[in-house]
């Protein structure tokens, strides 16, 4: 036997970029944002702190560009640079349907 009734469910309807305050709600109806996260544990200078920064696509890639520049600066005098900046942080490409 099915018993039907109405229930109220709270859901995320939009995520605002923490940098530029723009909506990340795409015209297709989905949310398109990146997230920078940190959870600092025992022994870390920021032990017990947790961070979560939501970024729109534009601000996310500006942040990635900044990190690439920092990596170049940190390694500017290294004789043997083994890390490529081209794909910093990229773990999948052409992943259109949420696969792992």
TrEMBL record:
It comes from the Bacteria. This is Uncharacterized protein.
């Amino acid at each position: 036997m099915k018993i039907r009734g109405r229930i109220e469910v709270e859901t995320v309807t939009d995520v605002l970029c923490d940098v530029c305050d723009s909506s990340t709600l795409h015209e297709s109806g989905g949310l398109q944002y990146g997230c920078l996260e940190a959870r600092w544990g025992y022994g870390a200078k920021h032990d017990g702190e947790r961070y979560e920064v939501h970024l729109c696509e534009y601000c996310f890639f500006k942040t990635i560009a900044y990190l690439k520049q920092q990596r170049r600066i940190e390694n500017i005098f290294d004789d043997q640079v083994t890390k490529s900046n081209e794909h910093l942080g990229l773990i999948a490409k052409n992943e259109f349907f949420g696969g792992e």
